[in-house]
Amino acid sequence: MHTTTSHASENRKRNGEHILINMTYIARNVDLDSGIELTRALEYWRRYFEENGIVSALVISEGYFVQSFQGTRPAISTALHKIFDEHPTIFPNIINIEEIESRQWDGFLIKHLTSSNEDELYALKNFSTGADYNPYLMRSSQIENFLHEIFADQKKL
Question: What is the 8-class DSSP label of residue 98?
């Protein structure tokens, strides 16, 4: 008697597809000069994340990116490599990587904080250590709290 068993699920687990990861990074936008270039890049990444089962929350302000994205371990790893390869001048600074039980975001969320008084006061009050908005001066816990506060009404329930 010959028995054949499938090890597809075991192979899948070996690569970490069953583990969800949250990764948060900060970066400075130095290579996307115009609003059109930024819009095209954001649409490209929205589609890429959607096709690969990644959800994201992104805040853009004063040339800085603060982004948290969540997905399977291999999907996050591939996305991170793709970001490094395609946007070497923004060089993301990873501030947090952790395993999570479930995705907290729903889709590809974007908030663009402008130089309006309301957004500026909001960013300075919740995200800054001084008179200037600069995520590089913040602790990782402050950045995580900032993202959760910005997108509190758009989180998965």
Answer: E
- Distance from C-alpha of 37 to C-alpha of 98, rounded to nearest angstrom: 31
Decide if pLDDT at 123 tops 70.
no
Mean pLDDT of the chain: 80
pLDDT band at 113 (very low <50, low <70, confident <90, very high): confident
Which carries the bigger pLDDT value, residue 52 or residue 138? Answer: 52
Q: Are 155 and 100 in contact (CB under 8 A)?
A: no
DSSP string, 41-95: HHHHHHHHHHHTT-EEEEEEETTEEEEEEEEEHHHHHHHHHHHHHH-TTT--EEE
Question: Which distant-in-sequence residues (6+ apart) come within 8 Å of 32 by Cβ?
Answer: 38, 41
Write out the H or E segment, with its range, that includes residue 120: helix 117-127
